[in-house]
Amino acid sequence: MEKTALQLQEKGDFAGAEPLLRQCLAVRERALGPEHIDTLAALNNLANLLHDRGQLDEAEKLHRRCLELREKTLGPDHPHTLGSLNNLALVLRAKGDFAGAEPLYRRGWTTMQRVSGEGHPDTLSMLNNLANLLSDMGDYTRAEPLYRQLVDQLQVKFGPDDPTTLAGEGNLANLLLRKGNYIAAGPVYQRCYDTRVRVQGAEHPETLLALGNLATYYFESGNYSEAEADYRRCLAGRQKALGPDHPDTLNTMDNLAGALRKANKLPEAETVARNCLAASERTLGAQHPATCNSASTLADILRDKGDTEGAVALYERALAGLRESPGATHPTTLSVLYEYAVLRKDQRRLPEARRLGYELLAGARRSLSKDNPSRSKYERFVESLR
């Protein structure tokens, strides 16, 4: 039962996996008791599945319970306990609770260095997750040295062409891209992709991830034709390897719609975005954060086409979901809030634009560091409304 559920989860069939994992947990609780190591493994698996489904509040509740019981029965330094610590931090990060996630990652990293050693794969994984969190916060000053430390240690441990090393390099490139350092980021993305093609093959899921990252690099640097071409290749590869409704496939479809919009191919962009939204609603549910993000992408396209009424409805729908999960101050929520506020300003609906702008500013000051470029952009926008 558990094996089947995990296989369904790997394929992206979260709805099919959930009842099996709930049944597995119930059976083990009755047969083994709530604190047995196998029961806690089932609890952890269900919490991870709920995270994937976007049910972050319940996922957090179950991960906290699992962590508490593992600390009690296995001790604070046991690998399973540290795994629960990491999983809880991942949920908090997804919810935008960066202040809650950071001490968990730091505790886990410090403990793993002491127990397993600085170069142990689990220690390096925790270091990577801490750096990812700081990058999400826009705290690039603290994130970059951690990424560089990570890549150096991965190269020593695994070699320069190992997939684990390439994953670390890819995350460093993501940081450089967020900082606007396109000259430094581009060659890293290209090396990661070329090496994965050679080592893992062009159709491997991790190679397709590297291709998608390369496409995002082109998109962010303004090369929309190259971004479009690579997103199309990535989408075709993921449809073949993962299926048309897998979350990674839908993410690529959403990115392709955004690239088509920037290339001013609005009719095709709208078609792709509508197909993506429909598939996301069908497979993930209407309130899943990825579905809400797809709704905001379609809203951007309709705004560009002059369909402001349609755009407003989609922005409001997207924000209603995103405020619930991952939360009102999460960077994704703030990005959609900004786009909606810009639309209201363009419509000369200044009271509404100001209301949205003040919500945006309060959220940015709570969750983004002072040197975060997005926070600076939001502050300038709100100032323009005065």
Automatic annotation (TrEMBL):
Alphabetical list of SMART domains matching this protein: TPR
Superkingdom, taxonomy of origin: Bacteria
InterPro entries, A to Z: NLR-like (IPR053137), TPR-like_helical_dom_sf (IPR011990), TPR_rpt (IPR019734)
Entries under PANTHER family matching the protein: AAA+ ATPASE DOMAIN-CONTAINING PROTEIN-RELATED, ATP/GTP-BINDING PROTEIN-RELATED
Protein name: Tetratricopeptide TPR_2 repeat protein
Source organism: Chthoniobacter flavus Ellin428
